[in-house]
Amino acid sequence: MRIGVHTLQLHRKITGSGRFTQNLLRALAQMDHDNEYVLFLRKDNAPYFSVKQENFTNHVCNITKKFKLWRIAYEHLRLPMLARKHHVDVFWSPSDIAPWHLPCISTVTIHDLKRFIIPQEFPLLEMKYFRMFLRNTAKRANLIFTGSESSGRDIMKYLHIPPERIIVAHYGLDPAFLEEKGVSLDCLKRIHGIKRKYILFVGQLIKSKNVPRMIRVFNQCKAAADYDFVIIGQPSFGFNEVDQTIKRESSSGNLRDRIHLVKWASTEHLVAFYKNASALLYASLYEGFGFPILEAMACGLPVITSTTSSMPEVAGDASLLVDPTDEKAMTAALERILTDDQTRQILIRKGYERVTLFSWENTAKKYLAVFNRLKQSL
Prior knowledge:
The protein contains 17 helices and 13 strands. By secondary structure, it is an alpha/beta fold. The chain folds into two domains: 2-172 and 359-375, Glycogen Phosphorylase B (Rossmann fold); 176-355, Glycogen Phosphorylase B (Rossmann fold), CATH 3.40.50.2000. The chain is globular. The model has no long low-confidence stretch (mean pLDDT 93).
C-alpha cells in the first residue's frame, strides 16, 4: 500500500503540529517496512520532515509557505493530481485540513476545534477559513484521527461526525526531552537576560493561550515577587493584548524587567528552559492535547494547568488543576507550588510516572493498525 503524507502546511520552525508529524513519521519509519510512504514536502520544510528510508519517497514541491494563498491553492488543486501520479492508496493529512477531492482514501488528524469553541479569539478571516475547510475535510475523510478523548467529543459535537469514524490516539513525548541535556543555565541567563529563578510558559501567543491572565497572576502572586516569568512562543493574533497587559501591570514596580519574551527556542534551549524553571504555568483556555504538560513533566518540572478540554486528560493527578478564568485560584496554585516543597516533590514524582504512559510507539501502532485495516478495503 502507498500512503501519501501532506506536510505543506507545516512550518520549518517546529511547533505543536510539526513536532507531532515529525515524531510520528519517525516512529512509523522504525515500525513499518512493508508499506510505502510518499511525503509531499515544501522546499523550505523538507530538511525537517523528510525521511531517508527505502520505503519512503520524499517529493519536494516547488513551493514555500511564504506565499500563503498560492500554497493553499496548490494544496487543494495540485496535491490531488500528485496523489494520483504517485498511485497513492491512502492519503494522510496530519495538520487538520485535507485537500479537496482526493482520488483515494482520505485520513486526517484534527488536533483541536478551538476556532469553533472560542471563535472570538481568532481573526475573522482565519476563523471562517478554518471552519469551512475543517467541515469539508471532516465530511469527506474516511477516518479522522485526534489526540484526545476531549477533542474526539468536540469533533462529534461541532462537525457532526459519528464516533465510529473517529480514532483517538494520544500523542507521545519527543525523545529529545529525555535525551537532550540542554545548554547551561548560565548560557540561558546570558542570552536572555534572566537574573532570577523563573516560572515558565510555552505556547504560541494567541488569545486562547490565556497569557494576559497568567501575567496578571504572576504579578499578583507574592511568592513570585523574586522570580522572572519566561514566555516562549511565536507572537500571533492576541500578542498585542499580551504587550498591553505587560505595560499596564508595569505601571508600578519592575514587572517589565522580570518578563522575558522568547519568540522561538531550539530543542537544546527549550529543554534547558524546562529543566531550570521552578514551575510551568500553563493555564490555557483550550487545548487539543497540550505538549508542554508532558515536556515539563519529563524534565522534572511541576505543572499548573487548566481544568478545561484535554488538559486534565493529559495531566491526570500529576499537576495542579485550576479554572483558567479564575485569577484568584491561579494565584493560589502558583503560591502553593512555589512555597510548599512537599507538593512540589509529589508533583515531580507523579509527573515522571505520568509521562511514561505517552509514547510515539503507541501512537504509531494505532495509526498503522488503521492504515493496515484500510488496506483490506482496497
